[in-house]
Amino acid sequence: xxxxxxxxxxxxxVALLMVRLGEWDISHWYAWSKYREAWAYYINAIAxxxxxxxxxxxxxxxxxxxxxxxxxxxxxxxxxxxxxxIYSLLLAIGVIVGVLSLFQINVKELFTSLSIIxxxxxxxxxxxxxxMINGMIITFSGQLSIGDNVRIGxxxxxxxxxxxxxxxxxxxxxxxxxxxxxxxxMTDVTNFTxxxxxxxxxxxxxxxxxxxxxxxxxxxxxxxxxxxxxxxKPESYYLRVAEVKKDSVSxxxxxxxxxxxxxxxRQIRRRTIRRLVEIISEREKFVDKIPELPDSPGHAVx
Length: 302
Known about the structure:
The chain is α+β, with helices and mostly antiparallel strands. The chain has 3 domains: 2-113; 144-191, SH3 type barrels, CATH 2.30.30.60; 199-289, Ferrodoxin-fold anticodon-binding domain (Alpha-Beta Plaits). Helices cover 53% and strands 17% of the residues. Strands 4-3-2-1-5 form a 5-stranded antiparallel β-sheet. The protein has a 3-stranded antiparallel β-sheet with strand order 6-8-7, with helices on one face. A hairpin with a 3-residue loop joins strand 7 (238-244) and strand 8. Helix 1 (2-21) runs antiparallel to helix 2, helix 2 runs antiparallel to helix 3 (78-102) and helix 3 packs antiparallel against helix 6 (126-141). The radius of gyration is 32 Å and the shape is elongated. The termini are far apart.
């Protein structure tokens, strides 16, 4: 069906091109009207705009088709998204110029006469323009792609879309976070998908009074993940001490999945956190049973 539409577009394109070049005379259609000159002008203007937009559409289709065929890409990747962004920009410019030409406005003279106004608009929209440029840089750099699991600043999640203005991030709570492209380029970004070893990490803090030993906690967490032992690489479990604070410890429980799977990561994270809550609750009951020490020596009750 899409090829039939393409052939129809090509036929319309050729017809419009013939009209614009004067190879197909359609003046007899409006020869009876007293507005013949106006008809001729608007037909040529509309034909010119339509030719440009259809040519742009053909170029985009051809580039994307060639890229998919060469790289065997089925979905959308950064290159295809970047091409669509360029297509959208050129399409918007073409429509604006076309509308101005319909009102017989000389675009070159308009931009020259209103250069001061456009300079002011450029200053007011510099952040918007900068976001667009940075969006193009991110798209074609290949460092971030749709589907990557990343950490941008304080936010971690899966990239669901990259637009000219922001990156859409889906976090573990299924919240969509919109991060401006300017912020992305100025912030430390960690791409967990690009690393060779796809190690999943669960970060948490635990109070020292709830921690018996790191080894016992690691063993308990590994036992809690027994139902997932078929999808987790053996000997990949590791409970790492990230930071020791005054009253608590920052820990990272890490493991490697045999095959990357976001849903499995969520299930494992949920089970790990619930086991942590059980451990803390058990230790809390144990701590409550410990009698308080006397304030000073020699005052203990016997």
